[in-house]
Amino acid sequence: MSHRLEQVSEVIRHELNNLFLTEIELPKNTLVTIVKVVTSKDLRHAKVYLSIIPAKYTGKVLEKLKANLGHLQYLLNQKLSIKPLPRLSLAIDQTEQEASRIEELLDRIKETG
Question: What domains, with CATH codes, occur in the chain?
């Protein structure tokens, strides 16, 4: 990834983090973390990977964030001075779940071996 893309992704991550804290009312005791932002080379799209704890609220929180995505996009566009303004999309980061699954499989192999 180029230095410019990394910078743009980091600015989006930082600004969205602030917007999540100030603009979105999340369920109590829920933590939403932006794991990473991947911005396309043409700067037209930015995929925001989220981690939601506890996992049982993932669907509910993601639904709420997606419902507010237009508003978040508007507020983010006010803060960014880049052209074109990247269009946001949200995704759940699966790294943690995949690591747990692999660890579980390795434990099973050890037990049977």
Answer: 3-112 (3.30.300.20)
